[in-house]
Amino acid sequence: MNERQALLERALGHHQAGRLGQAQALYREILAQEPGQPDAQHFLGLLGCQLGQYDAGLALMEQSLAARREPAYLNNLGNMLREHGRLEEAIARYQEAVRLQVDYAEAHNNLGNALREAGRAQEAMYCCARAIELSPQSAQAYNNLGNALQDLGELDAAAVSYGKAIALAPGYAQAYSNLGNVQRARQQMDAAIGSYRQAIGLQPDLHVAHHGLGLALRATGDLAGAAASLLHGLDTTDPHAHNTLATALTDIGDLEGAQAHCRKALQLAPELAIAHSNLGGILRMLRRYDEAIASCRRALELDPRLAVAYVTLATACFDQEQFAAAEQAFRQAIALGAGDINVHHNLAVTLLRLEKTGEALASCREALSRDGATGLMLTTFGDILCASNRTDEGLAAYRRALELDPDLWFAHTSLLFKHAGWIHCDPVQMLADARRFGGSMTSAARRWEHAPASVLARPLRIGFVSGDLRGHPVAVFIEGLITAVNPDRVQLFAYATQPSEDHVTARLKPHFGVWRDISALSDEAAADLIGRDGIDVLLDLSGHTKHHRLPLFAGKPAPVQATWLGYFATTGIAEMDYVLGDAYVLPVDEEAHFTEKPWRLPDSYLCFTPPDEPVEVGPLPMAANGFITFGTLNNANKLNDEVIALWSRVLRAVPDSRLLLKSAQFAQPPFSDRIARALAARGVARDRLILLGHSYRRQHLEAFNLLDIALDPFPYPGGTTSVEGLWMGVPVLTRKGDRFLSHVGESILHTAGLPEWIARDNDDYVAKAVAFASDPAALADVRRGLRAQLLASPLCDARRFARNFEDAMAGMYASVATGAASRD
Predict the structure, then answer these.
(1) Separation CA 225–CA 242 (nearest Å)
(2) Is the pLDDT of residue 4 over 80?
(3) Residue 572: which region, alpha, beta or left (left: phi > 0; alpha: psi -120 to 50)?
(4) 3-state SS class at 304
């Protein structure tokens, strides 16, 4: 061996051992002795590339090839070009290497890898297969063949290939990780988790195995484990890895951590559309809706076909009540192929809010036609059917939902709420449905045990559980009460079931000794809090309405529990002791409608708080118009076919009369057209209708000055709207009912001193409308004196109502101690 050859052998030894500085010095010594020596040039260039000095290193390697077209040199150069991102040049060098040496297994294998990276999986497969043919014991070649087969979707064949790689090299961590990827793609999650863990055991720093394990754990529902694995395997320079970790952190509720990793992904790749979309989803969950919408729109600027961004955008718009924008985004998502069952369902909910009931039904049916239809979707279907005035079908849909999921409490709630307001309500069936709900809640609740009730040396602690302690009819009827209660008799606690607050909330809060937001607490945790507060009488102010927390009442956190004000039928909760009402809404012959015992207040179960707005009562409109204007400012959902039919009779019986209808729904043309067609079919022309949409409260009150007589719908009459009308000088014509809900108008008019405005039946309703309309002078007299009459009545006497309320609370509590049966 000559001296140059010996130097080269020593240099290669240092190079292979990782002593790069010593190897570099010897390569340079050889080149100093023999300029252009191809071996020294080639390996010095290779060493330069390994040190990250690609330009100089690749130049030296190219120069060595000019002197000697060695297949091994071409293979090495291909490796460095590929590593430096010059993929097509690398492929060319590998191809030349195998042309010069057709049995060069390593070059065939490397060519296969490069072709796969270039997206040419079919060619890559042939190259890897040729490498295996030449070197049957090459575990690496089998692993690479598996990669190409996986790219081609040949998952079974890929798994076999990875298995052969592992059989040849049992310590081959990357092959185990790749096998895990195939198993995960085949939904074999337990096997995939095992393969990833085997890979990590062999090579603890193998990031891709940790990443794959995280994805597999997430698919099995181990969200905490998934986040931990993804974090452990995080490649901090990879924006996609940060984005995936953000998704996992979102799963476990770490929204701030998720947001941080999304933003890191976008720092690394500002135009990564999916990261903008995911950030939008996180911001939405943080209730930063404007930012969420902006993030989703940025994602769609970058990738207009990113369906998931449309879904997130639609959901954020829905949360902001931008229903038209939400509809458009959901439809875009569906057009891009994201029309899964949930998207169709959410589109249906959006269309329902837009009063597009026909389209909502179609979208909901599309969702229900797919595999995986749920009780939630059947509940939405029921909501849409009821909104379409097909209540019997809607109730059937709710019952089908409960067959799928008997514990779906909001399906119970929808069923009971809609049944109570249905013209054909069956009290026996409704009671049975309510008992079923109550039984489900009781069986799931942890029961509180209370010491025997005794005479208290302190004020009674009264808890109000409500989601409506804000600008809402419930607040209208409790504000006067809470300002007038005697603190020596009762201490008030508020338990708000949703976090939204407004200027009305600010007025209410100072009158409660304790105010607690329980919206984020579980039913059990909320019940524990109430129990620790030592509440004596706990009042439900919601019943089966939005934001109710009836399940917590099933645990009986207070010794006495009652439902009042927000609802108008039984809750079905056996642990609810009383329903608070009056003689009009709780007649003796209807006590069987309730699981609760009736407790009747002496005057009325309502106490109206007059508006702050200085709106004056206007003159009788018919004096200026020359015709009478009937109408209602009630929610248009109360206008069923029977109401439309009766009001049409009234208008036909009073020539030239007009009908004013004001509700938010009339801002939607499909809804307005439907009501107009229904009236036209009964002989009331469109030009006799005045349709008005939503307005703020002052404008709402001023609209009463357009009415001569208010018509009460049925069986769901006005409550707040009726009393506001009386305050504005507008008498309301109501009809005698057959259940708590339909007696509300009777209670209001009796208490206000207007019993003559209560009709016995439909014929009497028409007769009274005609009689009142025919006497403008009498109507004008009523209008002038009605506000003063209302203010002087028990409906507006907060001090009187407060004493009655305090007596009721004390009586309820005493009855627990004494076992007394009297409820009046």
Answers:
(1) 16
(2) no
(3) left
(4) coil
551 touches 523 (CB < 8 A) = yes
Whether 143 and 165 have beta carbons less than 8 Å apart is answered as yes
Report the alpha-carbon distance of residue 213 to residue 245 in Å, rounded: 12
Identify the CA nearest to 199 among candidates 180, 182, 217: 180
Helix (H) or strand (E) holding 495: strand 490-496
B/e letters for 291-311, b = 16+ CB within 10 Å, e = fewer, are bbbbbbebbbebbeebbbbbb
Strand order in the sheet with 658-662: 689-692, 658-662, 629-632, 709-711, 732-735, 758-759
- Segment 643-658 shows an average pLDDT of 97
Q: What letter does residue 733 receive in the DSSP assignment?
A: E
| Res 636 pLDDT > 70 | yes
Cβ(770)–Cβ(654) under 8 Å?
yes
Q: Which DSSP letter does residue 34 get?
A: S
Q: Which domains does the chain have, with CATH numbers?
A: 3-214 (1.25.40.10), 256-423 (1.25.40.10), 445-601 (3.40.50.11380), 621-796 (3.40.50.2000)
Which CA distances in Å does 549 have to 376, 525, 527, 563?
18, 12, 10, 12
* End-to-end Cα, the chain, rounded Å: 118
Q: Quickly list DSSP for 566-601.
A: S-SS----TT--EEEEETTTS-GGGGGG-SSEEEEE
* Contact present, 763 and 756 (Cβ < 8 Å): no
Mean pLDDT for all residues in the chain: 91
Judged by DSSP in three states, 203 sits in coil
Strand pairing class (597-601; 537-540)? unpaired
DSSP letters along 63-127, please? HHHHH---HHHHHHHHHHHHHTT-HHHHHHHHHHHHHH-TT-HHHHHHHHHHHHHTT-HHHHHHH
SS3 state of residue 421: coil
Whether the pTM exceeds 0.85: the reply is no
Based on DSSP, count helices (H) and strands (E) in the chain, helices before strands: 39, 13
Let me know if 413 is exposed, middle or buried by CB neighbors in 10 A (0-12, 13-18, 19+).
Answer: buried
Report the alpha-carbon distance of residue 264 to residue 301 in Å, rounded: 20
Do residues 46 and 23 make contact, with C-beta atoms less than 8 angstroms apart?
A: no
Return the amino acid letter for 187: Q
| DSSP, res 355 | T
- Nearest residue to 596 via CA among 614, 570, 560, 618: 570
- In this prediction, residue 821 carries a pLDDT of 38
pLDDT of 73 > 90? The answer is no
Distance CA(813)–CA(560), nearest Å, equals 6
